[in-house]
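Batch manifest, entry 17 of 40.
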Amino acid sequence: MKKTIQLITACFLLATSLAAQTTVSGTVADTKGDPLTGANVYLAGTYDGASSGIDGSFTFTTGEQGDKTLVVSFIGYEELALPVRLVGKPLTLTLTLKEAIDKIGGVVITAGSFQAGGETKREVLKPLDIVTTAGATADIAGALNTLPGTQTVGEEGRLFVRGGDDYETQTFIDGLLVFKPYGTTVPATPTRGRFSPFMFKGTSFSTGGYSAEYGQALSSTLNLTTKGTQTQSRTDLSIMSVGLEAAHAYSGANSSLAGKLGYTNLQPYFAVVPQQIDWRNGPVALEANAAYRYTFGNEGTLKAYAKYAVSGMEFNDYPVDAPQLPVPTTISNDYFYGNVSYRQLLSAKWSLMTGAAVTYNQDAYTIDGDKIIEDLTGTHAKLTFFGDLTRHLSLHTGIETIIRESGQYFQRLSDGFTNRWGFNETLVAGFAEADIYFTHNLVARLGARVEGSSLFNRGFVSPRVSMAYKVAEYGQFSVATGSYRQAPRDEYLWVAPQLDYERANHYILNYQFLTDQRTFRVEAYYKEYKALVKFDPDRFFDPAVYNNKGAGYARGIDLFWRDNQTIENADYWVSYSYLDTERDYQGFPYAARPAFTSRHNLSVVYKHFVPAWQTQFSATYTFGSGRPYNDPNTTVFNGAETPDYHDLSLSISYLVSQNIIIHGSVTNVVGRNNIFGYEYARQPAADGTYAGRPVELPAPRFIFLGIFITLSKEGTLNQLQSL
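Output type: structure tokens
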């Protein structure tokens, strides 16, 4: 009887268990309805589940009851968590998975943006390109001038972008503003950037449509990212035809400290290569740099950088209307820039970056005994947060303040007259920008920047929108539009502090095809200028003649092709820009092309490395069509035009040994006498005509030769990155 009862009980329990079993079945597919093979389907917190078959179908049984969560996962797709109720009855499901958003390999907004560095296949230029491009003479702006969207303004050396003046481009280091990023020089002599490309690991150059994080730039931004902690200690020595440099870097476990001293003296060079300028003492400069890095594990990085430089030069200037009378001129410059930045990982999804920078610049001129001193002190502090709110939504937001004091002091020798004018400004700004990832192929960026200025006693909002759509594995379209504002030039605000901000609206359409070894870009744009500064040039020092009634436009198309696959050991790129622009601003009597613009610009860069010789050869050809200039002997303003600009530059780098390099370069090797415009006398001669002369470089060529030596424990390091 006992055994009979046990048998009946077991059968009852088995029947109850079988009755409680639930069969879960169905299919797994993507949003297009295509089946997903190998998807993992299971009940959370249990071992009950199955994998989908070739047709996406699955089936399994479970003894679980009540409310449960069914989890479906598949590589490359978002995980699905579906609430289900198990009551012992068969459950049939049709499951759809969405493709996961890959923010690294997916679509990225490229309208108006060129990336260099950052260790991503999206980079258009590598850091090494900036320092090995012939004709750039290891100058960041010089290399970027081979990209589309830039203008060939050979007598300046600065960045002129899409019909914009040089002051319309702002420079940032680690996101912090740099005031006066170029060195001081004499008229019609190209300047250089103050910062060596050797200190940066990445460069972001935008020709328009840039992030709401950046303000006070009508046309362009250049954001330079400094290197992290040095991994090896080293000493670098440079012996150059223009001076000497010595640098040392110490590397510790979590920190590094680097310092550099440089001395430049062009007087010996001028003794060998004659100049058209009547130099009494050629340019001499002394500079010191220091960089400190510290890493707090994997969660935080502290960076600090400082640069101090002094320079001076003396020459005789000869006015157009009195070329026989020398005007003794002395120029000196005192410059300091320093910044500190800290980046902290707050969580798996959120980070913050905070930092501050200070700039001090003083230019002192003595012109035939008259003294002019121009000084600027500027500080910039910023706090930003960035991270993911959801899988489809990222946020970048922050606040910043910019404080600057700018002024000019004048003292006349003849009667002792003195004058001082200037201004102070405190600008407070905030920005927010959201990246919305609709799909793996479609992303939109919506942002706005809010600024308030004590100088202009007003605030404003600048909206910015951009979007990108990936049409193929390597190809995508991007669009961007936005509103941008910038304070007028300091010299205008000295005289007329009542002026308002100048404004520009950007509209950009871009297509880019990018693989690891080839890049093709085409970009069309339209830029609308409003509230540009106008004044009467005959009454320059009268505040009453200044207003913001100027306007203008710039439109064009840019093309870029780069290929380092077709020719073995070779790399080349071709850039072409077409520009149509007019402005009615400054002292213009009506709308006309500015003197710094040319309709057609072409750059061809070719680099070839010969392994057997351990040598790299580089050549750059640059073309710019004629630029307008104003001839007062005619009735049409800016109606004259210069001859076309042509420049062929060559460079060579020879690796003598692993740690010794010889580098040489020559700009404009054919010695073409390029003319950048004409300058005229202020008053007409007795016959009523204005005397004039061409604006040319002091010498048709610039020749550079240097030996670069690196001392390190391993003996394998060199300065190839800095050439």
